[in-house]
Amino acid sequence: MDVFASYIPYVTGRQTHAGRALTLEGQTLEVHSHLMGDSADNSYVWIPSTKTVITGDVAFNGVHPWTADSTPETRKAWLKSLDELSALKPVTVVAGHKDPKLPDDAKSLAATRDYVETFDAAVASSKTGAEVKDKVNKKYGSLQLPIILDIGASAAYPAPAAAKK
Prior knowledge:
Blueprint: E1 21-24, E2 27-35, E3 42-47, E4 52-54, E5 60-61, H1 72-87, E6 92-94, E7 97-98, H2 107-124, H3 129-140, H4 146-155
Parallel strand pairs: 4-6, 5-7
Antiparallel strand pairs: 1-2, 2-3, 3-4
């Protein structure tokens, strides 16, 4: 049982700062929810005064994005989410998962977009997860957490179900 559940509002529908903003130390933080990232129902926080976006699992920086739960349709929606974040013209972008040695800048939005497009093209032009992995690694082999690419590429081509006897 969740003792604190009654204190946490559940938000339905696409929410933006209308009723979803808070002020912290004099700065407005806008909470935007219900957008696609590595899975459905992601959120981000926009801090207009500093042009900072905290992306949750919409943007990645220096690590392979999680694609195992994605489909061609959800990857298209993910790209639209990245467009929404890019349209803010942020100066600082704090990715949901990142290589800590990399800066928190807007390059992660473009890099995530390119990765998702590359992964999608690799899936569309391959017959196996191994082919996807090889194609994506040609461009993104230096990213951290290669196991995430392994899982995502394998998920794009699930093993056929065993025949019933």
